[in-house]
Amino acid sequence: MASSYSQEWRSVCDKFRDSQTLSDVESRKDPENDPFRSKYKARDLLKEIYTVLNNFDIGETENDDNDAECQTEEPVDGGKGEACGRSCPGDSSAGIRAAKLGVIEYYLGVNHLETEELSAGEEHLMKCMKLLERCTITQENVSLCIQARNQLGILWAGRDETEKAQGFLETAESIYIRYMKEDGQPPMDLTEFFVGEEDQLSQQERTKRFEMAYTHTLYYLAQVYKNLEQFERAGKYCHSTLQRQLEFNQFVPLEWAINAATLSQYYITKTRYMEGRHCLAASSVIVGLAGEVPSEAAAQESEVEYERREQLRQKRAEIGRCWIKYCLNLLQDARKLLEDNIGELDVDRQAELRRTRRDEEEERERERKSTVLFSSSDTFDSICALEDKVSCIFPLDFDEARAVFLVGQNYVGEAKEYFEMDGHVTDHIEILQDHSALFKVLAFFDEDLDRRCKMHKRRVDLLEPICKDLNAQYYLLVCRQLQFELAETYYEMMDLKLALADRQDDLDAHTVKKFNHLCSSSMRFYDMFLDSTRSPEGKFPDKLEDDLLRPALVAKFRVARLQSKLISSSPSVQIDNLNLSLEAYQFVVQYCKKHPEAKATVETELELSEEMVNLLPIKINRIRAKITTN
């Protein structure tokens, strides 16, 4: 071992250390017109080390008492093969030199990838794997084998060769699992091959670095599975990655928090609200570890503080938006469970769900115990406390729904503080639309028709001013969304007022005026939506685009219904209204005759339109007859 400390070997170690410094530290200072200057210098040093290693005798660097080599072959082509089934002798001098050469090949490969020379990088990484193909499950080699495959996985994923990337990464995963099962001791880190004994890492630091390499494997596999649309596996691996980052304290708070919030959205789409809530609670707690948001005064005095302030505000607002989606989706999914075939609350179903809730809660608690939770001594209590503020179980009545609504509304306020209309138009409007949707779904749970109508009025108050001010030339799609939603909102208010009117014997002038106003307002916004589809010359399209087909025909159908609902004491005005209604119904029928493929998109509306096309002329003639008689 004495020769390991020869002057020549010390020179090798010094060059290796310098190459690391150049690559990791000095490269950050490289000028824009020469961005890889330090990387190229690091590469030259690595090449010099490789030449020296090749010229060393085996015995010069390590004890050569045992030079036996493992003869078990392992595929190096990215196939989903198992890791080498035998371990090489830990004191093999040939094996140690192969590992050292492999380390240099690895860093040369990474160097070429970082300087955008992908083919050369791949060549070096494959050479690294070839050097170690007979000896993978050893304390000396296992970390290198995993990290080389991680890099090849990234490389092939970047080339859109997802399945090839999958092969390398899954092999890296199997190597880790096999090593932990058969050995489990903290393995050598790549850097330790080129330092003296006095600079060897502690067992704790070795463990940390090895586990970090495996965490990267899981993270890259999560991306691969997502690209392969294997979303269940992607979610599982993403969750494991986040858990391990917390466990080994290997995370950047802002980045971790956003990743956890993003994962929550996947769980929400699968109606796994317990896991979704847990991710969001953890996200909100961990983002707090990034520190307090600098004051506006501090941000004005320092560019660094300004950027930090904006970044923190943005990320917290983004997490807030994820909370809004959580609350909104929980309420909407509860509505789907509770509504009958005409979209109203099914009280029998409500009672049935109440009876089964106890069993459901017990089952969810069992699920929680088996779920991988984000926990550490510093954060677990805070995460649980935040979870307790909002349910993960479907609300069954107005009070339970309101509790979820209030949490969502609180996050609406927080999100709007950053995503202001000035500078964040689209984001601001999307938040308002979510706020409107929260009111809409809450109204479903309320049996008080007058209070429901007031909730829809709140939706109008949120969206109508924005719709009036927005320039359709630049925000056509958003304008259409707002116009259609406002039309629907007024339409729902009209239906509620109609239901209230049915309970009265006589309608006073004020009620009639209010009802007609709601009908007219709904028609106005439906007409605005329909007009947005016209050509610059004002011509309605002969054939509607697929994304506009159902909305446009539904708008025509509802305009027809609204026109017929207008209340007037004048028979001639009634006839005018009914004629306009008939024209709109006829449009729906004629369009579907001309374009038969449209029938499937508006089956119910078409059936009713055909019926009204036959009935309305009779009604119109009856009113005319009365006028003539009088």
Automatic annotation (TrEMBL):
Chain segments carrying region Disordered: 60-84
Keywords: Cytoplasm, Cytoskeleton
Keyword match Cytoplasm: yes
One BP term from GO: microtubule cytoskeleton organization
Gene3D superfamilies: Tetratricopeptide repeat domain (1.25.40.10)
Stored InterPro entries: KBP, TPR-like_helical_dom_sf
Location of this chain's protein in the cell: Cytoplasm, Cytoskeleton
GO cellular component, one term: cytoskeleton
Biased composition annotated in UniProt, kind: Acidic residues: 60-76
UniProt similarity note: Belongs to the KIF-binding protein family.
Role according to the record: Activator of KIF1B plus-end-directed microtubule motor activity. Required for organization of axonal microtubules, and axonal outgrowth and maintenance during peripheral and central nervous system development.
PANTHER family: KIF-BINDING PROTEIN, KIF1-BINDING PROTEIN
Name of the protein in question: KIF-binding protein
Organism annotation: Clupea harengus
Recorded name of the encoding gene: kifbp
